Amino acid sequence: MSQITKVVIPAAGLGTRFLPATKAQPKEMLPVVDKPAIQYVIEEAIRNDLTNILVVTGRGKRSIEDHFDQSFELEQLLTESGRSTELEVVRSIARLGNIHYIRQGRPLGLGHAVLAAKAHVGNDPFVTMLADDIMSQDSDLLARMLQLHHRTGANVLSLMEVPREQIRLYGCAEIVQEADGTTRVVSVVEKPDPSDAPSTLAITGRYLFTPQIFDAIETTPSGKNGEFQLTDAIEQLSRTQPVLGVVFQHGRYDIGDKLEYLRAVVEMALLREDIGPAFAADLRAIMAREFEAS
């Protein structure tokens, strides 16, 4: 089976959960320490040899393209001022991968955004990575998904156990365990009521699809507000093709959630050799003051 190299990153959402910060900048460009969230996603793709990258954008997302493009004026300024470290950081961003862009003309849901990649993907299997879902650098989730597809040829979803009261925020997967230990997804439902949810396994922001997902999206009726839900298309796909799951528990940050965003900034800052020790000392001092005040 040929190696998968294509990845689709939907980045056309309006980011309303993070207003007013996202009124004039894409949510995907929110900084996590000193890098925008989408850069972590693209770096994760590159680490897993997914070098043919399509970012699906929308109105007001031009800064994403600018970030991954060369900045001749900035490079010249850094060169003239002898700031070689910063210069290499800036240049390395433009060398990350073969990045393409396409506009999703209307915000008609995640399924519609994935469908916009049909011509680029062609007849090849591909990975979809949500731009506001970032993983810790030591996560092996995507590698496990690619290995499972290579062994089986199946579609693969990333699944995470969540508290039952939170399953209403996610697509939910009903699974069975095969004799060989493989997790097979038998049905999915979008944002179920916790009392009706078939499990507490949430579908998170990493997907591996065969190109048949496009047929499923095109033949699935639109739902609320005329949007095409990717979950509905996966449900239809599972009736004709195997859909498997890789269950994980740690290393994920939902940048679209304010508390998760703050946790990502704190935890990733603490892991940095350059600022981690000093930041840890500052956190201890802040917590000590809080405990004294209470």
TrEMBL record:
Top EC group: transferase
Gene Ontology molecular function, alphabetical: UTP:glucose-1-phosphate uridylyltransferase activity
InterPro entries: GalU_uridylyltTrfase_bac/arc, NTP_transferase_dom, Nucleotide-diphossugar_trans
EC numbers on record: 2.7.7.9
Record-linked CDD domains: UGPase_prokaryotic
Keywords, in A-Z order: Nucleotidyltransferase, Transferase
Family designation: Belongs to the UDPGP type 2 family.
Recorded superkingdom: Bacteria
PANTHER family noted in UniProt: UTP--GLUCOSE-1-PHOSPHATE URIDYLYLTRANSFERASE
Designated name of the protein: UTP--glucose-1-phosphate uridylyltransferase
Nucleotidyl transferase domain: residues covered: 6-265
Organism name: Ferrimicrobium acidiphilum
Chain segments annotated as coiled-coil in the UniProt record: none
UniProt keyword annotation of Transferase present: yes
Enzymatic reactions: alpha-D-glucose 1-phosphate + UTP + H(+) = UDP-alpha-D-glucose + diphosphate
